[in-house]
Amino acid sequence: MMERNLVNVLLLGGGFMLIFTSFQTLGNIEQTIIDSIKKDLPSFTGDGYTSLAIIYAALSLSNWVTPSILSAIGPRLAMAIGAITYCLFMASFFVPHVVLLYGCSVVLGAGAALIWTGQGMYLSQCSTGDTISRNSGIFWAMLQMSMFFGNLLVFFTFQGKTHIDETTRSIVFAVLIAVAIVGLVLLTCLRRPSANVGDQPVELNTDVRPRQAFLNAIRLFQTPRMILLSITFVYTGLSLSFFSGVYGSSIGFTNAIGTSAKQYVGLNGVFIGVGEVLGGVAFGLLGTRTTTRWGRDPIVIAGGVLHMVAYFLIYLNLPNGAPFGNTDAMSYIQPPSAIIAMGCSFLLGLGDACFNTQCYSMLGGVFKSQPAEAFSIFKFTQSVAAAASFVYSSYCGLHVQLVILVVLGILGTITFCVVEFAVKRERPTLERDYEK
Question: Transmembrane residues, as ranges (predicted)?
Fold first, then answer.
């Protein structure tokens, strides 16, 4: 039965890897692509940051109803429906129109709530207290392999281009949609999780009525432990929006990097992926050992330190106006270094893996009796922060954005550690009660 659950985790990771090979690549280049579309089609007035903000705003609002939907249709069907919305959003780029772009952004936000809450619930059902860290690490490593393939495609197709022409855009969109469809097929192959053996018995709320599921989510959100964790979740949302949308575009818009600046948008995603996968593999293979011996807090602290180093180097390496469009401005490091930029991409990815694998481990282990509610709250707070970040990214320079990230990063690290210390104190008591 444990082997069956492991196969389920691998299928889950494979499906998400392919779907987000498409979406994360598109999110990374969306502002750059739209900038080129506007030059070919002046009547098009869409904005990449606005589209991403709408996606995350819709995602945050939809998260309050997803526990009710999951209680009615289950996580597997929810994930399949969510995957379809990703395919529809990417297809909308073949017909550039503001209403279509923003309308599909809303639909995708609702679908993203389904796919992510369903994923959290399903992963929790496939795991025990002993395997949740391992399974979280495996899933995260497979998911973040998505950063390689799509961004390598971008790196080679954008080679030597300062303007992304319609033919190049169409090739990229067609490949990304095809890959996402294969990921959707993998998710339809997921099997019902087998009963977990050898773990403390936990009753999952699989038969909760939709209205009760919504009320449970509200109550859980009001608990002191979840309030503290929400600050960490907010930070993960801010950092996600920064490295998935703002940072890559800032590199591409910095003319002083050279004629290959647009290429580095894709290579940036590859280096983020290297860091994400390395972190996921490390915490997947060593997750059970490190969590049992030292807890989750050392890994989160390490992630916070890695991000602080990256933000400082980005502050020195890129000009303040880089997020807004092509700029000839210089930074403190003259000229801006592509090597430092790619090194920061790696640090951002590795630090993000530290935070997210431990958040998944915390939610899947500590809140195992309410997985849909816990993961919906996680995605709600994360998405609100990401949406807010994409809104202020259109107005705030790079330096202000970095200050916000530093402050929330420190607070988020502290609050996660506070909760983890409380969990450590409770663990011996729970083990004694279980032995009795």
Answer: 49-65, 77-94, 100-117, 138-158, 170-190, 226-247, 267-287, 299-318, 338-355, 376-395, 401-423
